[in-house]
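Exercise 7. Given the encoded structure of a 177-residue chain, write a plausible sequence.
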C-alpha cells in the first residue's frame, strides 16, 4: 500500500469510529482539554494533593468529571472536588476519592490489567456499545462513563461484573432514555 492509501485508510477508520459515538468532535476535544485543567486545579488546591501522599486519577466524558484514587484526609477530598467544580466546562463532578494511603504500583498494574480485560470483553459483546463507554479502574473499583441507553448500560454492567478482579462497579452513565 502506498503512503497516501494508508493515510486515507487511517482517516476513514477514525471517522467511522467517531461516528459510532454520540458525542460531537467538539465534545471529545473539550474533554481532552478538561483533564489537564482539572488536574492542574486539583494540584493547586492543596500541596498534599500533588504529593506522594495522594494518588489522584481524573477522567472526563462529556463534561462529567470523575476523581478517583486515594488521599489521606477527608478535607483533601473535599478540596479536590471543589477545585474540579471550579474549572470552566465541567458540568458534573463525581468525587470518588478514598480516604487512605495511596495504592502500590502492583495494585495499579492490576487495575490496568482489569481495565484491559473489561475492554476486551465489551468489544466481544454485541450488546455493549464499547466505543461509547469509558472504563476506569482504581483499586479494584471499575467506573463506567458514557452516554448510553438504560439497556446498554445494564449490558455493560453485567459484562463488567463478571470480570475477574472487579470488586465493585460504579455507573456514571448519562442515559439517553
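Solution.
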Amino acid at each position: 500500500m502506498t503512503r497516501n492509501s494508508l493515510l486515507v485508510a487511517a482517516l476513514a477508520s477514525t471517522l467511522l469510529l467517531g461516528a459510532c459515538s454520540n458525542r460531537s468532535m467538539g465534545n471529545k476535544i473539550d474533554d481532552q482539554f478538561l483533564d489537564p485543567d482539572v488536574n492542574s486545579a486539583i494540584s493547586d488546591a492543596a500541596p498534599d494533593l500533588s504529593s506522594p501522599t495522594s494518588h489522584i486519577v481524573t477522567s472526563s466524558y462529556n463534561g462529567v468529571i470523575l476523581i478517583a484514587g486515594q488521599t489521606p484526609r477527608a478535607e483533601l477530598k473535599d478540596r479536590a472536588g471543589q477545585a474540579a467544580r471550579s474549572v470552566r466546562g465541567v458540568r458534573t463532578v463525581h468525587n470518588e476519592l478514598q480516604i487512605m494511603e495511596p495504592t502500590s504500583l502492583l495494585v495499579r498494574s492490576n487495575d490496568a490489567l482489569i481495565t484491559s480485560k473489561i475492554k476486551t470483553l465489551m468489544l466481544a459483546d454485541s450488546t455493549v456499545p464499547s466505543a461509547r463507554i469509558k472504563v476506569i479502574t482504581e483499586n479494584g473499583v471499575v467506573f463506567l462513563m458514557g452516554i448510553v441507553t438504560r439497556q446498554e448500560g445494564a449490558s455493560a454492567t453485567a459484562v463488567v461484573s463478571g470480570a475477574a478482579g472487579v470488586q465493585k462497579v460504579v455507573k456514571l452513565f448519562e442515559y439517553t432514555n
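Remark. The radius of gyration is 17 Å. Students should compare their own answers with the one above.
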